[in-house]
Amino acid sequence: MSPRTSVGLVAAGAAARTALARLLPGVLGPVMGESYRLASRMVSALRAGYPVRDAEGLRRCRTVLIAVPDAVLAPFVERLAAAQVRWAGKVVLLCDSPLTSAALSRLAEKGARAGSIAELPGFDPARFLIEGDRAAMRAARRLIGGRLHAIEVKPEGKTRLLAAYAIAGDLFIPLATAVQACVRAAGLRGEPASSLLEHIFSRALRAFLKSGRQGSSGILAAPDAAEVSRRAEVLGQIDPKLAEYFRGAAANALRLFGKEDFGLHGLEKG
């Protein structure tokens, strides 16, 4: 049995949709689930591997992938650690989770080489973020193969990069919504509005990539409380929530840039 065909999978929930699923046909061996019936269903969905009733079915695997919801990861890890399996020398990879290899510490205590692997969204071809024990990262690279790319980071690097994605999604969408509201209030719709939005954000991103926070040439670069208030007033005419959002964002930006002493309370109160 070659290293690539000695891969086991411990899965629950929507594991069949794991980012690694497309790599498993022809590679996957035993599949363990919450029950034998559920393991059989996953095998059918993945069109790969064969179901096993318990962790003992993973004995011959050199690499074990774990793809379960974070909420039930700890019980699964305890179940694996308590099994009559020699974990020393095996590679165990946590898949598609924001958690790091530290979540597999119980298996590492048993001698397993722990790591994690998660796909970064938006890349074509795909890129995977990998961290953990060196042997685990080598195994992850072999599993990914030459078709895809792997980015190696330290455990804390994984959480920080995923935080960047979260910030970009969670905070950018409200910002884009506010800017779009202004563009629409100016009377633009359809393609002209979309093109202008793209230009506004592309220009800001280019300025940041070139000069960092110094790329700002607006009211926050040389804080002007009166101008902030005037712009907030304009936004309030469109929607009072936009004015509130702008004042709060401006105040937080001043904190971030170390300009707390500049009219901060006035900005927040409006």
Characterization of the model:
The protein is an alpha/beta fold. It has two domains: 3-153, NAD(P)-binding Rossmann-like Domain (Rossmann fold); 161-269. The protein is built from nine helices and eight strands. Strands 3-2-1-4-5-6-7-8 form an eight-stranded mixed sheet, sandwiched between helices. Helix 4 links the parallel strand 7 (127-132) and strand 8 (149-152). The protein is elongated and about 70 Å long. The chain starts with 6 loop residues before the first strand and ends with a helix.
- The name of the CATH topology of the largest domain is Rossmann fold
Q: At the first level of CATH, what is the class of the largest domain?
A: Alpha Beta
* Tally of distinct domains: 2
Give the strand line-up of the largest sheet: 3-2-1-4-5-6-7-8
Helix-residue proportion: 40-55%
Mean pLDDT: 87
Quote the beta fraction. Answer: 15-25%
Low-confidence stretches: none
| The CATH H-level homologous superfamily of the largest domain | NAD(P)-binding Rossmann-like Domain
What does the radius of gyration come to? Answer: 25 Å
Number of strands: 8
- The CATH architecture of the largest domain is 3-Layer(aba) Sandwich
Structural class: alpha/beta
Largest sheet: 8 strands, mixed
| Large-scale geometry | elongated
Q: Which tags fit this structure?
A:
270 residues; alpha/beta; Rossmann fold; 2 domains; eight-stranded mixed β-sheet; 9 helices; 8 strands; elongated
Briefly say what this structure is:
This protein is an alpha/beta fold and 270 residues long.
